[in-house]
Design a protein that fits this description.
The structure is a single chain. It contains three helices and ten strands, in the order αααββββββββββ. By secondary structure, it is mostly beta strands. It has two domains: 1-37, no CATH class; 73-185, no CATH class. It has a five-stranded mixed β-sheet, with no helix packed on it. Strands 4-3-6-9-10 form a five-stranded antiparallel β-sheet, with no helix packed on it. Strand 9 (165-173) and strand 10 (182-185) form a beta hairpin. The longest helix has 10 residues, at 58-67. It is elongated. It starts with 5 loop residues before the first helix and ends with a strand.
């Protein structure tokens, strides 16, 4: 990469540097440089997968869990609950329970779980309240909720739920106000 020129600065292009050559690939959406996705001082790995396949593959989920410092030894490929099965994912909510299981109740009171009981991904979530259950194997569980929204908006929240056993909670999701989305434990 080289420094961006004055036209790039004026139009807000290539904030992290102007590329000097292109690498053509069928992976990704072509909208960002791979280097732009690197977190400073982190162990960088590039997976040859598109955005959706990263969170659906064993390799991708293991890398995400390692980055978050969570166990992934018994991790299986994720099942993703989708509010719109026929459409390409545009957004997602990722729920991780560090010390237990997570599930949510669908409108028909059917309990939805992922293949890995400590993680659940809701693809293309609707604006609504998601009723959830968290079970804990210790006196406290850390719950991580990531919201991956259009226009590269990503919001992570961390919650601590005290006490062992099963707890019910509600996650109020509004796409337009991600910073206001909160988990309410009953």
């Amino acid at each position: 990469m080289t420094r961006r020129n004055s036209i790039d600065v004026l139009f807000g292009r290539w904030k992290d540097g102007r590329p000097v050559r292109r690498i053509y690939t069928n992976h990704g959406d072509g909208a960002a440089l791979a280097q732009s996705s690197f977190i400073p001082n982190a162990n960088h790995r590039t997976l040859q997968k598109n955005h959706t396949d990263i969170i659906k593959s064993q390799e991708g989920v293991s890398a995400i869990m390692a980055l978050l410092g969570l166990q992934s030894s018994s991790l299986q490929t994720l099942h993703m609950a989708s509010e719109h099965q026929d459409s390409e994912p545009q957004s997602a909510i990722v729920i991780l329970n560090e010390n237990g299981d997570v599930s949510f109740m669908e409108e028909n009171n059917h309990l939805q779980r992922g293949k890995d009981p400590s993680m659940l991904i809701i693809v293309n979530p609707k604006n609504k309240e998601y009723r959830m259950r968290f079970s804990s194997r210790s006196n406290a569980s850390r719950i991580f909720i990531g919201q991956f929204l259009p226009e590269d908006t990503i919001v992570w929240n961390e919650y601590t739920i005290r006490g062992s056993g099963t707890k019910r909670a509600t996650f109020k999701f509004r796409m337009e106000q991600p910073s206001h989305n909160r988990l309410f434990v009953e």
